[in-house]
Amino acid sequence: MISKEQLNLAVVPGGSMGQAIALIAAQKGHNVRVYRRAHEVDTRERVNLPDNVKIFSSLKDTVTGVDVLVLAPPTQIFEELARESLFYLKRESLILSASKGLQKGTNHRPSQILENLDQTLRPRIAVMSGPNLASGILRGDETGTVIAAYNSKVANYLRDRLENPKFIIQAEKDLIGVELGGAFKNLVALAAGMFDEINMSANTKAYYITKLVSELVEVALRQGAKSSTFTGLSWLGDIFLCTTDNESRNYRAGELLVKNPRAAQGFLSEDKPWLAEGVHTIAPAYALARVSNINSTPILDLINNAVYTEQSLEDAINRLGNNRDYHDS
Fold first, then answer.
1. Beta pairing, strands 125-129 & 143-149
2. Is 103 helix (H, G, I), strand (E, B) or coil?
3. Separation of alpha carbons 27 and 30, rounded Å
4. Using CA atoms, how far apart are residues 86 and 113, in angstroms rounded to an integer?
5. pTM for this one?
6. What are phi and psi of 96, to 5 degrees?
7. Segment 110-144, tens digit of pLDDT
8. Which of 100, 185, 205, 211 is catalytic?
9. Parallel/antiparallel/unpaired status of strands 8-12 and 31-35
10. Is 185 a catalytic residue?
11. What topology is assigned to 8-173 in CATH?
12. Domain boundaries, the chain
């Protein structure tokens, strides 16, 4: 374990959440390097990033020699950036994933992607998830998050070096549950936006969101998540945030998908994976449910069909509403 208090920390890439984490680390006195890709805007002036945050356009210069690597890309390009970053990373460095999603095709969580790249990384991997809109962190809003790792010393170490009075960190061991909470909440946010766009009543929205969360909790349990995680920040906290605040990118995506169903193609575009993680999470969540021998996921099916087929969301809900067997389940 790295013993020093002041760290050299790399954030890859410099998107909205990457900038937010860079600010948190810099406020603790760490030397922070941010990798900024061509399409990302330098927000130094807008958010007043401290002088100990340096922006790089070279991944090699960003990662070489750092003690902690924070990976915060959209999950669909996580493997690409992780593979290249690992080439320059010291063998003893810690890795903190702040990505919230599942890889299409493999259905893997970010930590699984890392382990597939290098199995020796497992004791040094941690993940972070919670009710954390990047815009709120950059404004200095008080919030909390969870850092989970298989190695509790790693979670505690990162908590102690990143926590501040307005960014409270809980250290936990349920890495699987925390990652799945982060991924699945994006799907719930997508559904909330879709439901609001069809002017679903608050009562009905709460009913169907609860049903959807129940389906996703069952999937997470079958994948090895701990039930205690579901009442914490990385599940309940994040779901509450994303279903009540339209700053959520995934919530806004849900609204747009109802307004313009053709927009789904834009969200699914391979060259724009950052647009909405929730859209990319539908297929992996559906696949994990079936792999886990869960054959009945009516609300997940409803969202899947609304995004990937021409099926009307309102018609699907009406049919489901008339299905007595579903309501009794």
1. antiparallel
2. coil
3. 7
4. 12
5. 0.92
6. -115, 115
7. 999 999 999 999 999 999 999 999 999 999 999 99
8. 185
9. parallel
10. yes
11. Rossmann fold (3.40.50)
12. 8-173, 176-328
